[in-house]
From TrEMBL:
The lineage of its organism: Bacteria, Pseudomonadati, Bacteroidota, Sphingobacteriia, Sphingobacteriales. CDD domains: CAP_ED. It holds the Pfam family cNMP_binding. It comes from the Bacteria. Residues 15-123 form the Cyclic nucleotide-binding domain. This is CRP-like cAMP-binding protein.
Length: 196
């Protein structure tokens, strides 16, 4: 499992053999069954996970008792409740495996030690964190300002491998749409692609 993370890190920046040894020492491989929870509301998210295989969702339960999906994670993506991880406060989220999955976990203690011991690794993580924050802001802006058709088309373009792996009701939740609206948008998009 570690090879996938090492390949990913090599794509993102320069790490020395010493840096890679520190990463290997901090990493803990974990297999997770479909529908198994990595985190439940009220627990502290004391880990960061790098997805090697499979998929996950992070979601909250709203006042309406509906599930509201905040993020997905597939291969080469990171998963955690980052707010709970950074603050040490209990999470208001759940993280569930959508498929049988494999990930590499880093405990908060080992993660902090790794960042302190490897400036090269920290530089990679800082750049990834900035990109993640930007993507999160873009998604919020899209959900509050763009029509359903645009949100759906962006999702399909940005996440082509994810689109075919998760149920449509989860895509609707992620996009802030009802299932009925997503069905209508998909039909319209299908008609447009047939007429081209």
């Amino acid at each position: 499992m570690l090879e996938a993370l090492i390949d990913y890190l090599h794509e993102k920046g320069q790490l020395t053999p010493e840096d890679l040894e520190l990463v290997a020492q901090a990493a803990v491989p974990k297999r997770v069954r479909k529908q198994q929870y990595l985190l439940e509301e009220g627990e502290v998210s004391d880990f960061l996970g790098f997805v090697v295989k499979g998929s996950f969702r992070l979601f909250r339960i709203g006042a309406d008792q509906e599930e509201h999906i905040m993020r997905f994670a597939i291969e080469n993506w990171w998963i955690s409740d980052f707010i709970s991880f950074m603050s040490g406060q209990p999470s208001n989220c759940y993280i569930e495996a959508l498929e049988d999955s494999e990930l590499i976990r880093f405990s908060k203690e080992k993660w902090n030690e790794l960042l302190a011991a490897s400036p090269n690794f920290k530089q990679i993580i800082d750049a990834l964190t900035a990109r993640n924050f930007e993507a999160h802001q873009d998604r919020i802006f899209s959900n509050i300002s763009e029509p359903a058709e645009v949100r759906y088309e962006k999702f399909v373009q940005q996440y082509p491998t994810l689109y075919n792996r998760i149920p449509l009701y989860m895509i609707a939740s992620f996009l802030g749409l009802t299932r009925e609206t997503l069905s209508r948008v998909r039909k319209q998009a299908g008609k447009r692609s047939l007429s081209k």
